[in-house]
Design a protein that fits this description.
211 residues, mainly alpha, Arc Repressor Mutant, subunit A, disordered N terminus
Length: 211
Amino acid sequence: MPQPRPRKRHPETASRILAAAEEAFAAHGLAGARTERIAARAGVNKALLYYYFRGKRDLYRSVLRRLLEDLARTGEPGAGSPLSARERLAGFVNRYFDFLATHPNYPRLMQREVMESKGELDWVLRDYYRPLLEGLVRLIAEGVRQGEFRRVDPQQSTLSLLGATTSYFAAPLWGRFLGCDLLDPDALEARRRSLLDFLSHGLFQPERGQR
C-alpha cells in the first residue's frame, strides 16, 4: 500500500502565520497571545498553525528569529570593503534606521523578551547581538586608528549610537507630547537627518579641507 505523501508547506502561509503572530506577541506577550486569534488573523485553522510550528513557544521563537535575521543584515560590509570607516558607519546607521522603521514591533518584542524570558536570551545574545556589537566596536576602533573618528571609547560610542537610534522607535508615546506622528514619513526623514548630523559632529573628524 503506498504511503501518503507529506503535505507541502507553503512559504506564503508560514509568512502569514508569522506576521499575525508577531502582532499578537508584540501586543500581548508570549503568555497573553492566543493561538486561536493568531490562526484567525492569518486566515488558517488552528490545526494548520500546529502543522507549521510545533507549538506556541516554537512559533514565538520563529517570530524572533525572523526579525533578528533581518537585523543581522544591517551589519557593516565585510573585510576588504573599499568604503571608508566613515562611509561604512553611516551606511550601517541608515540600514539600522530603515530596519527599525519597517519593523515597528521589534522594540516592543525585545523589551518583552528581556522582561519575560527568565534567562532564555542566550541564543539571541550569542547568535545576533554579539556579532553586531563586536562588528560595530571594531569599525569604530578602526576609524579612530585611521584618524577618521575622534578619539572615543569604541564600546561606549557603540552603545550611544544604538541607543540614540533605537530609543526613537521604542517610545512612540513621545509623539503625543510633541503633537506629531513619529512614524510619519516626513518625521522619519527629519529624524534620520538629525541622527546623521549628530553622528557627523559627535564622532567624525572634519574632512580635509574643512579643518
